[in-house]
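Reminder: ligand-aware prediction takes two inputs, not one.
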Amino acid sequence: MTTTEQRLAAIRGGVPARRHNARTIAALTGNPGCTRRAVLDGAGVDKPRLAERIGFPARFGQSRFAISRGNAFEAQVKADGGAELLRLVAERLGVSPGGVPTWTDLNADGLTQRHERSRELLTAADDDASPALFDHPLLSLEIAGQRVYLEPDLVAARLAGRYHVVEIKSFPVVDGQADPGKVAAAAIQSAVYVLALRELLAAAGHDPELVSADVVLICPRDFANQPVASLVDVRRQLLVLRRQLARMDRLDALLARVPEDFTADPTAEPAALVAALGAVEAHYAPDCLAACELAFFCRHEARGHTAALGRPVREALGGVADVAEALALADGDHPGEPDQAEAAALLRAAARLRAEALAGRPT
Ligand code: SF4
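Here is what comes back for the chain with iron/sulfur cluster:
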């Protein structure tokens, strides 16, 4: 009988686990019904490498140019011990910066020491109420029964006795507007940090509400490198996140649904990996393309299934699993089962409307 830890190590091929970040946790909660993803992420499998190995490389992420431009912007915002950063945050929150901030970069130490130091400093008594900025604090969250560390890509700002999560993003704010999709992604990621920071304070006996649900995004304005701060209320995202994390099964329960010899070791033979992945239940949806490195593989695997066309289609065609079957029902070639009557009527009506539209007149 192996322990959960041993099984997870065997699944990732004996290499160290990849660390979670706010993006991977936000994405994990976006598809909580996918056992394949939960097990691979829970084991810390190198999914980009795995996807490449099986011939379906992931195609998202930033270009090198965008990464260096983002790094330069971040360095600019954090310069001078965070003086400009504090000014932007205080101005946006409408509070007085209240003196020279202390700036603590927690990026330098090893994993355990960094987490311990982050915990010590963030939960220390705030007697003088002076502003303090903590760069790269290492936070953690419990995911599916396992405590995972979050790649620290935030600044925690303590100002007027409250903490605010500050994220520096490289997407621009043009004429006061940013790409809504990017803001939404940043909001759910920031909510992950807010939740982790609240848990940290609560575990130390502090009021978790000291961490504000108003997070501060700092972005370049109008394609220039001039930083601008915006407030984003992540209360709704926190609710979603808590609900989804609570719904996720424990990892040991998920492992019980996975074959005993399942491996996703990226050095194994591609055919063996494809067969192994095929034995673990997945729930592909078009949203996966923006959130999971295995999306091209899972989309290929789900081809021909109505579920692969997205939730609205899946809900409208409940009980019709295959595209071929849906087409047969639409053509009237196949009468369908009694429980498919509603979907069949819908499909026949859609086929009739399509035929009318193509003919340019009612049939
Ligand atoms: S891409 Fe595949 S593994 Fe990833 S969440 Fe979607 S279905 Fe699950």
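The first strand starts at residue 102 and ends at 105. The mean pLDDT is 86. We will return to this case in the review session.
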